[in-house]
Write a structure and sequence with these properties.
Helix content is about 40%, strand content about 10%. The protein contains 10 helices and 8 strands.
């Protein structure tokens, strides 16, 4: 439970999460406001991130019904997964609490297979277990490398932006973000200018939901709901600023996007890196990384950039 000191009322965070997302809290609005996916979203996610381990974990409960300690240890995983699979709103991070159980479940299945084929204490069983672990390690390494190489652009360009603009002499500057608001990592990436921390502003884009806003003044901001907030994910016009207030602009340009890229007459590329265009790339190349240029040659990439307003526009 969250300490009452911070919220001024008793609050159970996990309970709030379940009530809101299963439609009996928050006016029943939280279950399908955004991020709604079919059950296959989690199935695909588990196979991508755990590959053979996820598949081996599936039958483990049926294999332990006579081994009560293991049965009771694995049951919470199945209950938790059933709840999250049923929930309309799905996010990858929701499943992290089940990851240790998934590994245990896969080990149970592997042990059961080895016991009934070659004997769990034989040299062949040890070799078989090592082969499974090696396959899992190689596939996982490829997956992690894909996540890094295909999606590293936001963190890298904001890091470059921070170091190249720290202690800048601009008296009036701001960084603006439109549709890419959810990939902005943290205010720690905003450089310190002579007038203070560079302001972050939202500009109008194709996103039609509610954007974040800063907390209120400490400490009341911990428990008070700020003005211009709603629990229906409706657009709040008060969040937006005009583009002419921006000195810098962060945006992603993809091949088939609906929005026009930043106007070259007003903006100049400052920091740019390739970013995977998932809709224009095919499996398995977009999901797993193969070195020696094989993945790069079979995928399509957009350009993730931070732009600087041209000098003549500042005059």
């Amino acid at each position: 439970p969250t300490p009452k000191l911070y919220t001024k009322r008793p609050l159970w965070a996990m309970g709030n999460h379940l009530l809101y997302n299963f439609g009996v809290g928050g006016g029943g609005a939280g279950a399908d406001l955004y991020g709604t996916e079919p059950w296959t979203f989690y199935a695909k996610n588990l196979v991508l991130n755990f590959n053979i381990v996820a598949l081996m974990a599936v039958p483990s409960l049926a294999l332990t019904w006579k081994r009560w300690r293991l049965f009771l240890a694995l049951t919470p995983m199945y209950v938790t997964l059933a709840l999250f699979f049923k929930m309309a709103h799905k996010e990858e991070r929701f499943l992290t609490m089940t990851y240790p159980h998934i590994c245990l479940a896969a080990a149970v299945t592997l042990d059961w297979i080895l016991q009934r084929t070659v004997g769990s204490r034989s040299a062949i069983a040890t070799f078989g277990a090592l082969v499974v672990v090696a396959c899992f390690w190689c596939i996982s390494l490829s997956r992690n490398a894909a996540l890094y190489h295909h999606f590293k652009a936001p963190l890298r360009i904001y890091e470059d932006f921070y170091y190249s603009n720290s202690s800048s002499s601009f008296e009036s500057s701001s960084l603006c973000i439109g549709k890419e608001w959810y990939r902005f990592p943290s205010s720690f990436f905003l450089p310190e200018m002579q007038a203070g921390t560079l302001p972050l502003l939202w500009v109008n884009s194709s996103f039609d939901g509610q954007l974040p806003q800063p907390f209120g003044v400490w400490p009341r901001g911990l428990w008070e709901v700020p003005p211009h907030m709603n629990d229906r994910n409706l657009r709040e016009p008060s969040r937006y600023h005009e583009e002419n207030e921006c000195s810098f602009l962060a945006d992603l340009t993809l091949m088939h996007q609906k929005e026009a890229p930043p106007d070259e007459k007003q903006w100049k590329e400052m920091h740019c890196l390739p970013f995977l265009d998932a809709e224009s790339s095919r499996l398995p190349w977009r999901a797993f990384y193969v070195p020696f240029g094989l993945s790069n040659s079979r995928n399509s990439f957009g350009s993730y950039c931070i732009y600087r307003r041209l000098a003549e526009e500042k005059k």
